[in-house]
Amino acid sequence: MKNSALQITPGDSESLYNKTPRAVVVTSFQGEAVVHLPLQGKPEILDYRYSLVDSR
Fold it and tell me: Is residue 53 within 8 Å of 32, Cβ to Cβ?
């Protein structure tokens, strides 16, 4: 069962906040997939590829 309303809230002993400024890491992936979608029956993945295109 999935429940998207759940949250994890750490207590004082589990919490850590470090206000030191640091660079944000942004990573981008691109991909494509080829899928056969028959009129009846299950779809079939024929091929797919994904790759890292940018990371800064």
Answer: no
| Alpha carbon distance 3, 20 (integer Å) | 34
Q: What is the pTM of this model?
A: 0.45
- Could you identify the residue written with the tokens 């800064």? 56
Provide the token pair at 42: 């299950």
Six token digits for residue 56: 């800064």
Tokens found for residue 52: 């890292």
Average pLDDT in the chain: 86
3-class SS letters over 17-47:
CCCCCCCCCCEEEEEEEEEECCCCCCCEEEE
Q: For residue 4, give the DSSP letter.
A: T
